[in-house]
Amino acid sequence: MHPPTSSILIADDHQAMRQGVRALLESHPIFQIIAEAGDGREALELAIETKPDIAILDYSLPLMNGLELTRSIKHALPRTEILIYTMHDRESILIDVLRAGARGYVLKSDSGTHLVTAVKALSRRRPYFSGAISETLLEHFIDSDHSADKGIVLTAREREIVQLIAEGKLNKQIAHILDISVKTVETHRASAMHKLKIRTTAELVLYAVRNNIVEP
Fold first, then answer.
1. Quick one: how far is CA 190 from the chain centroid?
2. How many angstroms separate the CA atoms of 73 and 77, rounded?
3. Neighbouring C-beta atoms of residue 120, cutoff 10 Å
4. What is the pTM of this model?
5. Apex CA 68: angle with CA 17 and CA 130, to 5°?
6. Cα–Cα distance between 22 and 12 in angstroms, integer?
7. How far is CA 16 from CA 3, 13, 25, 92, in A?
8. Domain 156-210 has CATH 1.10.357.10
9. CATH 1.10.10.10, the chain: domain bounds
10. Are 104 and 83 in contact (CB under 8 A)?
11. What's the order of all strands across the beta sheet hosting 31-37?
12. Engineering a disulfide at 121: which of 21, 128, 130, 192 sits with its beta carbon 3.0 to 4.6 angstroms away?
């Protein structure tokens, strides 16, 4: 009796990376790639449409980053397992995506074996973290006597708009992407800037980079 296949969505803004992941996983008959996306919003739409067992997400996705995408997929599809496949080993990113619901984290610098092992683990509903990530996690929990950040909390919509502004989108373009009015974009933008005590777009971009919303 053959083991059941796991349906997989791959989201990465580099086509060559998506092709490499697809080729690696398709060499194992228990994996079936059912969708590929080049940005976060496309990935969310495809996830809702195809309901994959596992979503393999890059962190640095345009339009909606891996953190927001993880939150959105887990909200819409609680049974879809999320694997973050990225070059970033920053502790703050790792902790954020785990809190959002990801249960696997593999670095692109790791060998392909780690990726395959991670997908196999998630298909059995078990978490998986490659060696360097496990060490980072362990250090975090050893150090974390201090309380969680008492930072400023932006709403999901405000974070989306901050990301799009930081990516250089104009209010009109953001309104089109998010299917909301320009006035609504301006309201959320003003609210975010007020909360952050920020006055210029340049400061907003700096905030987005410092808080892992976009890459520098």
1. 25
2. 6
3. 17
4. 0.74
5. 50
6. 11
7. 29, 9, 14, 27
8. no
9. 156-210
10. yes
11. 31-37, 6-11, 54-57, 81-86, 104-107, 128-129
12. 128
